[in-house]
Amino acid sequence: MIDQITIQESAPIEQTPEALAGILGIKKPLTEEVFRAAIDNPGYMHNLLASKDTPAFINYLLSHPPASSGKKEADAKVKKKTSLELMAKASKSILKWSKAKFKTVSEEVYNQRLSACEQCEHWQDPPENVLYKLTSLTSKEKKDRKICGQCGCVTANKARLPHENCPVAHASVPGMSKWMELIK
Ligand code: SF4
Questions:
Q1: Is the CB of 148 under 6 A from ligand 1?
Q2: Does the predicted model carry a pTM greater than 0.70?
Q3: Helices (DSSP H) in the chain: which residue ranges?
Q4: Residues 91 and 178 placed together within one structural domain of the fold
Q5: 143 and 172 share a domain?
Q6: Domain of life here (predicted)?
Q7: Same domain, yes or no, for 93 and 121?
Q8: Residue 40 C-alpha to ligand 1 middle, in angstroms?
């Protein structure tokens, strides 16, 4: 059961990719590239978790982590983190997701979030890389492929996840994000 899996904060950093692999049902540890991408890109993590029972799809994702295909800024940012920070972030993201039991937000919240993204200066077309192309295969509309320039996530995916948040403060409402949710 996914919600019973925990990663001990005292565990060595090299065991965390193994724990992630276990959650995804993969027998070998994740590569460093995949691990870094999963930690730094909730959209990628989402796609991995959502695909965990579809071997062909997850194998494709594992072979094409976004950091290896041009997301240099995020990679550089992740490289600056200490091992402990990486482990803490990975643990937090997975545990939040597992506690939510893969639930998604209501249509009302989803539409409110997406509406804010559509008016945001950071909402942009994705770069030409394989992960975003893959995402576009399942998108019904072009706007479903747009990403948040602040975090690199596909907003149509990110906005569905209860534990996700907009990283930018609202211009006129203190303490709130552009999604009009409390800044976490
Ligand atoms: S998540 Fe926030 S910062 Fe990113 S595009 Fe949406 S509104 Fe803008």
A1: yes
A2: no
A3: 16-24, 32-40, 42-50, 55-63, 72-80, 83-99, 107-118, 130-137, 155-158
A4: no
A5: yes
A6: Bacteria
A7: no
A8: 16
What is the three-class DSSP state of 49?
helix
Backbone angles phi, psi at 81, to 5 degrees: -75, 150
Ligand 1 atom having least distance to the Cα of 147:
5
**Does residue 120's CB lie within 6 angstroms of at least one atom of ligand 1?**
yes
Q: Give the residue from 83, 99, 115 where a domain finishes.
A: 99
Specify the residue with its C-alpha closest to ligand 1, atom 4: 148
Q: Rounded to an integer, what distance in angstroms lies between the CA atom of residue 5 and that of residue 23?
A: 7
Domain range enclosing 44: 2-99
Pocket lining: 155 vs ligand 1, CB cutoff 6 Å: yes
Q: What is the pLDDT along the chain (184 residues), one digit of tens a residue?
A: 333 333 343 444 445 677 778 777 888 777 878 877 776 676 777 778 777 777 777 888 888 887 544 445 544 444 444 445 545 555 565 667 667 776 778 999 999 999 999 999 999 887 665 455 545 445 456 667 788 888 767 788 788 888 888 989 999 999 999 999 998 7
